[in-house]
Design goal:
alpha+beta, Alpha-Beta Plaits, two-stranded antiparallel sheet, two-stranded antiparallel ribbon, 18% strand
Length: 87
């Protein structure tokens, strides 16, 4: 997501309160915030994006990437933390 830097803290809080958003990261680089969203279908995701996420004050635009497949054997450790839990 590209966001207004003055609103970044409020945006992170607002995103964290949305049940379908599982992870929120403040990042350095091209984007300002990266979030992981889980919905049951693309239509549900579309509604979440247009009715909730894009209504958060300070979000300028988003870039969407859809995960097609998850190879659970290749899960790198998080920076400054432990690797992702595997079932």
């Amino acid at each position: 997501m590209f966001v207004d830097s003055a609103e970044k803290e409020n945006i992170v809080e607002a995103l964290s309160r949305i049940e379908e958003i599982k992870e929120v990261y403040e990042v350095a680089g091209e984007y300002d915030i990266v979030s992981v969203v889980s919905t049951s279908c693309l239509e549900e995701f579309r509604e979440l994006l247009h009715k909730r996420i894009l209504h958060i004050k300070g979000i300028k635009s988003t870039v969407i990437t859809v995960i097609l497949n998850l190879n659970e054997k290749v899960m790198p450790p998080r920076i400054g933390g432990k690797g992702l839990k595997q079932p």
